[in-house]
Amino acid sequence: MKTSDYVRAILSELSEHSPAIQDEQAEQLVKSILAARKVFVAGAGRSGLMGKSFAMRLTHIGVEAYVIGETNTPAFTSEDLLIVGSGSGRTETLLVLAKKARAIGGSVASFTLSADSPIADLSDEVILLSGAPKDQHEGNHHTIQPMGSLFEQTLLLMYDAVILRLMEMKELDTHKMYGHHANLE
Length: 185
Hints:
The chain is an alpha/beta fold. It has one domain: Rossmann fold (3-Layer(aba) Sandwich). Helices cover about 45% and strands about 10% of the residues. It has helices at about 5-15, 25-35, 45-60, 90-105, 120, 150-170, 175, and strands spanning about 40-45, 65, 80-85, 105-110, 125-130. A 5-stranded parallel sheet has the order 2-1-3-4-5. Strand 1 (about 40-45), helix 3 and strand 2 (about 65) form a beta-alpha-beta unit. Helix 3 packs parallel to helix 6. The radius of gyration is 16 Å and the shape is globular. The chain starts with a helix and ends in an 8-residue tail after the last helix. The model has no long low-confidence stretch (mean pLDDT about 85).
């Protein structure tokens, strides 16, 4: 196959899995983001990179957002929301964060492939995404892509869709958001 064929195959997989997105769960997450004092985002590996891009866009729309593990991340409080992206829902480092957020009294939302995972069990809100697990030995979904790529791409698209919904609710457009964009570039 040519590279362009792979691009079409990836887009086809993303289109095939997008109908599985649950609007009701996503809408509740949007409300929780708007209600939170601060929003913290966590993920491991490539899922963490998708989370960083989400936190950046949250900042662009005026939401006080932080990425767990960065040097400027403040204390988490009972008024805050932790959003975790984990395909397996079993990543130990993320599980520790979710437990601690719950112990503090804050809220936890998770994007995952598995409703029967420890992180989903700790979450106030679970947004189930469709895709193949990293090892691809379990589950019903198969992909031509390596490891968790399909989940990670779907996660990024979902994060961007949440941003678009928040923009709609806050009556923002790209021009208004640009005022929050980094200007020391």
